[in-house]
Amino acid sequence: MIEKRLSQNQIIPTDKWNSLVDSVSGNRENQWKDSNPAARVKYVLFVIGKVIGLLFLLYIFVCSLDVMSSAFRLVGGKITGKAFTEGAILSNPIGGLMLGLLATVIVQSSSTSTSIVVSMVSSSILPVQRAIPIIMGANIGTSVTNTIVALTQSNRRDEFRRAFAGATVHDMFNWVTVLILLPLEIISGLLFHLTGAITRSISLERKASTNPQFLNVLTKPLTHRIIQLDEKVIQNIALGTVESNVSLIKHYCSYNNVTTENSTSILVPKIYCEFLFSKMSWPDWAIGLCLLFLSIIALCTCLVLLVKLLQSMLKGTISTVIHKTVNANFPGVFHHLTPYLAIGIGCIFTILVQSSSIFTSTLTPLVGLGVISIERMYPFTLGSNIGTTITGIMAALTATTALELRNALQIALCHTFFNIFGILIWFPVPFMRNVPIALAKRLGETTATYRWFAIVYIIGSFFLIPLIIFAISLAGGPAFVGVFAPLSFIALFIIIINFLQIHVPNVLPNLLQTWSWLPRPFRTLAWYDEHIFRSQKQVTVYNENEEKELSTITNRIVENNHSHANKAFNNNDDLEKIPEIYT
């Protein structure tokens, strides 16, 4: 409301997508010049303390993501591994897509689900063609983490709008890419034939390979004091080499290779692992739930403190400089190359941290604060999608024979080319580039108006709808077509009518030029907001004293605007008094 009133008087031209939070901080340069040496030293030490605090919070944030991933694996990892052995599921491309999505959401790691698929393909348990939809689903599921992270900024409407849009631009890209490439793959086998030709054209020799350790070197000293998992158990359950009741918790950290009298080598446990939950006799799911609760508290606390600390640091000239630097383009004719550099940066950083979730989740609060624009977040996300495929390639290189290496490398390359083709479709052409961005901004607008919709979106998009589609796909092809063919037709009809209503409403009959003839629950979220969640009253109702204060502040800014030639931003005291309910 305050933004609307101020814009009507042409005082403060706001941009809800690119404006910096608390970007006006006064004349700090003059304050620095006028301060004494002791005050300057105090200020410098204060800034250093903030930087150290920022790095500490970022470290705890990354560690909490790692622990949360372990917690999800303890809760649902065995079910995930067992699901990968069901042939009826894997024979259906839609079922495979939903399996990949749900598995990645459950274990909170696309690297884990992708590595399972690569290992199954390498062992010839899963054909490459059936594995491709699972890889596509894993690509979608990995975006749930930064979408959840965006919820921590829901207390400020404008921040939440930007943060949620910045997080879901990842979702939108993955979904629209799957909508094009999955049918194309089912019809033509594009990825299968392309990667098959590549692997057949090169000479493959098995070489020992391990994933490079970068960020894990820093986080392991803390996370391994809390929980340690045997990473191969889920994979072995999927391969059928161990029983599904084996614990995921790692009990022994070192083994001795002992030769028996029959000249048989066996591994004998040597050193017992020491960590917080090592001596507990709880089942895996109970420890997982406990860790999940603790990690979510740590994650939310870190993010709230991180955002507040960033807000206090990114003010005035600093925020403006960072905003302009991050979102700047190359000069002259080279400005079109800037987004491609951002893709490269996103790819490199994701390879370094070995997780696209960590990289995008770290950027999400900065998008909420307005430091990074959604248009710049988009190429960072695309680069992150490419970088995360390196894990699958590394897993493929551990195959023991040339045939296993060829199969494993082929499915890993399918993952890479899926993201490359997605970028080629949705990035080079400006019109196509705007589709995922516009969809994400629409979600950001909706969640800023109805904050409860963010929870509905996460539960629906990553749990409820995939589970329903997954269950129907198990019933067989006829049942699936019978249910989703009518629903797809209705959805396509609504999309076309909405497009025509916006751009050429005159070509439609009077009845279809608006949806006003439909009952309110079928055409607007406002009905649910008023009758179920009842949050709208808390936003729109304000008392008489606040209205008077708002009127006084607005009139003062108007006078300041007329007398100082549109320098209304100089008076920070008035702006800071505006009640948050209006922003």
From TrEMBL:
Pfam family, any one: Na_Pi_cotrans
Q: InterPro entries, from UniProt? A: Na/Pi_transpt (IPR003841)
The entry assigns this protein to a family as follows: Belongs to the SLC34A transporter family.
How far does the signal peptide extend, from start to end residue? none
- Keywords for this entry? Cell membrane, Membrane, Transmembrane, Transmembrane helix
Query: What is the protein's membrane topology class?
Result: Multi-pass membrane protein
Cellular localisation: Apical cell membrane
Any GO MF annotation of the entry: sodium:phosphate symporter activity
Bilayer-spanning residue ranges: 43-68, 89-111, 131-151, 172-194, 285-307, 328-352, 358-374, 386-403, 409-429, 450-473, 479-500
Would I find Transmembrane helix among this entry's keywords?
Answer: yes
This one is known as Sodium-dependent phosphate transport protein 2B
Q: Which lineage do the record's taxonomy fields give for this organism?
A: Eukaryota, Metazoa, Spiralia, Gnathifera, Rotifera
Coarse class of the primary localization is membrane
GO CC terms? apical plasma membrane
Q: What GO terms in the biological process aspect are recorded for it?
A: sodium-dependent phosphate transport
